[in-house]
Amino acid sequence: MKNYRKLLILFFSISILISCSKEDNPDGSGGTPTVDKSANLKSLGSSASDLLSDSKFTSMYIEMVFVDGFRPTDEAIQNFKSFLQERTYKPDGIEINLRSVSTSGNAPFDIDEIVDIEKEERTSYNAGDEIAVWIYFADGSNEKDSDDKFVLGSAFRNTSMVIYEKTIRDFASKAGAPSRAIIETATLNHEFGHLFGLVNLGTAPTSDHEDSGNDGHCKVDGCLMRASIEFGSSAIDVINGGTGVPTLKEACIDDLRSVGGR
User: Fold this and answer.
1) Would you say the C-alpha torsion 10, 16, 18, 19 has a positive or negative sign?
2) Which processes are annotated in GO (biological process) (predicted)?
3) Which domains does the chain have, with CATH numbers?
4) 166, 139 Cβ separation under 8 angstroms
5) pTM score of the predicted model
């Protein structure tokens, strides 16, 4: 069962690649009994239509929670909001609310520790005609990081994501790396693509574009949802304006449109 995606970045001299992997679905039990959280504790991709269309939810509320000192850049937040506005129908708007929290002190993280943090820190759930999404910017790395592979983000459940902000900052500080805003934007957009059910993670493909060697990803060159995406001919090209953050290609856009997206 495909149930959440991790965005990995591979550093080969000055070229940059992004890829994802999967893990077991975290347990959604527990929580405050006075709040109905069940609609936000479902499998990855199961709320694609709700996130994309206005048939049930006419607005979206994104709760961005960051550990003190690890706030994402304003540029990445605006880029991310623009990406959502371009692909969704939310006539009553998309609101992004940021707030800081204290460190959990548990880094490096496994997914169960992220789930525990969500239980403690998430305050917004679906209500009325507004769908809620929770994004956590962590002050540490993922426990599966290695010398040449870094987990930047994970989409899990239907409305939950974690971004490993410390890892992004460490990578962005390397010589020739893209800016922090570019890496944050690519990570946010890619992982939200998985919340949209891409590729074949709740949203059925309308054409043959799933990568047979990397399930849940697109095989179209240059697509945001490829398992491996080169930002540009080199990191320097990206910083100087090159190809910048990758975008969704037509095959993925067609899939989103088939379930109510733009």
Assistant:
1) negative
2) proteolysis
3) 15-25+34-258 (3.40.390.10)
4) yes
5) 0.85
